[in-house]
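Lab notebook page, bench 4
Experiment: in silico fold of construct C2
Operator: M.H.
Input chain length: 329 residues
Purpose: comparison with the prior construct
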Amino acid sequence: MSDVFNTLPGIEASVSSVSKSLRDMWANVAASGKTALPPDEVKATQLNLVLHLGLPAKPDDAIAQFAVALKFAQRYPCRVVVLCPLPEDSKVSEIHAKVYGECFFGKSKGDTRCVEAVMLSYPVSARPYLENQVSVCLSTDLPLYYWVHRFSDAGKLSAYQYLLRRSKRVIFDTAIVPLDAISYSWPRPEAVRDLAYARLLHVRQVVGQFLSGTPPSVLAKGLRSITLTHAPEFRAEAFSLSRWLVERMADCNANAGDASPQLRITPSPGADSLSVSFAYDDDRRFAWRGNFSTHQGSFEANFGGDSVHLPSTVSLLAPEMALSEAMFF
């Protein structure tokens, strides 16, 4: 079994009897004098989440992502299935399983939610049987979401058509995926979501709200270039924000009739985590900058009237909130 699988919490269980093992797990908890088996409404499950940990994932990384899934489950009760592949040279030939349960207390004594998780460790040779095992572990008749974390090759994911085609969303993070993931021909591209884009929700709201105060024709007319500057660690966020800006300005440009602006994305080790500037063919200007560590940002703009200088707050969504943003929007 892999180090990742061994590091994750849970009680080893028979793969063929996961449901029974989950029931036994709660029964054993009650027998030990702790909280008894939660009533059905406390365990009410809204969806299935499959977290697929790629081979490059290390034990500490796996624990961190599983913690994100648990925090997400506090808000959206779900059945979590964690897939832990073994290296191709592994001598293991069977699929191994663990089950795990945890309850969370809300704002009141009666506000309690519980989550159940199943961990599956599998060798490459057992991959053809994995779909059947995953289907057994899922809660039936509920939507399925597929979160792929730190995979090494997008092409290898083509072996998981059951998950790629059935899932309502296929989620990954462009900050840590191989380059071929961007251009890969996903079976259902409309279902693919990027966590880097989701993390930027607050940035898109702040920038969008500011720009919405200016008529689209004024924003687009004579716009020569859009420049994004980013700290090295926020490259994925810069590219995600650039796609959003280009799409929004294209909508404005449909009425202005001008050529598309040139896009520039450049790294910078400066104090700003991310910044945006518009260059026009006249004296108009727009600039926004933000620091994700201090949560401080600012606007400087002049669209033909008085110059505006405004401070702003800025932050990235917490990982569990970014996950929910990517899944539902």
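Observations: The two ends are 36 Å apart (CA to CA). The mean pLDDT is 90.
Next step: discuss at group meeting.
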